[in-house]
Amino acid sequence: MPEPNTYNVFLCHPHTHAVWVEQLAGRLTDEAHLTVWLDKWVLIPGEDFQPEMAKGLEVADTCAVFVGAETPSGWVEQEIQKALNRQAADESFRVIPVLMDDAEEAAVNDFLELRTWVDFRAGAEEAFHRLVSGIRGEAPGRWKPPPPGDEEKVKKQLRYIASLQSEGLLFDDVAKQAQEKLLWEALANV
Q1: In CATH terms, is domain 7-136 a member of 2.40.160.40?
Q2: In what order do the strands lie in the sheet with 118-119?
């Protein structure tokens, strides 16, 4: 599968949370239809990873920086600095701090704390909605959870649309319109 020329988001994370971040990356890909730069998915085993990580940050539209209980250090800290430097040179590039469920606010460094956070400690579904909105560069608006019981039906319909799109039976713009219509209808019934 050829690598995309651009990514919607570069995921910068400590390796102690790699499983959690990969699960979220799967949701970003499968449910929100975003192109995700995740080291495990993109880096080729045996090759020098530093230039590829730098390239990933250069071609991504946004960078989501995942913060857990500890202050980012090592390679993660260097990725954060590269992302913040890019943002200083390119105002359209967003750096989104993402507080994971075990995050301590004291772990957020001085420059990241100046940005609007996405906080998974407060609720995963709302945080996911906020993260997707941030990656797309859209205001998240008011978030209301789907009514009980309808959530699985809506997810099933979204997966069906995604499968039609991946099989080439729906153009991307038609799939997006169908997804938006489905979501608006689901939210209208809340």
Answers
A1: no
A2: 36-37, 7-12, 60-67, 94-99, 118-119
Across 151-173, b (16+ Cβ under 10 Å) vs e yields eeebeebbeebbeebeeeebeee
- Give the model confidence (pLDDT) of 85-119 as tens digits: 787 788 889 889 888 887 776 556 565 666 777 88
pLDDT digits (tens, 9 = 90+) for 60-81: 999 998 887 665 666 667 777 7
Phi–psi pair at 92, nearest 5 degrees: -80, -15
Q: Which two tokens stand for residue 179?
A: 């997804």
pTM: 0.68
- How long a stretch of residues is the chain? 190
Instruction: Give dist(CA 65, CA 68) in Å, integer.
Output: 10
Q: Which residues does 115 contact at the CB level (< 8 Å), separation at least 6?
A: 94, 95, 96, 97
Comparing C-alpha atoms, which of 33, 17, 4, 19 is closest to residue 98? 17
Structure tokens, 53: 């990580």
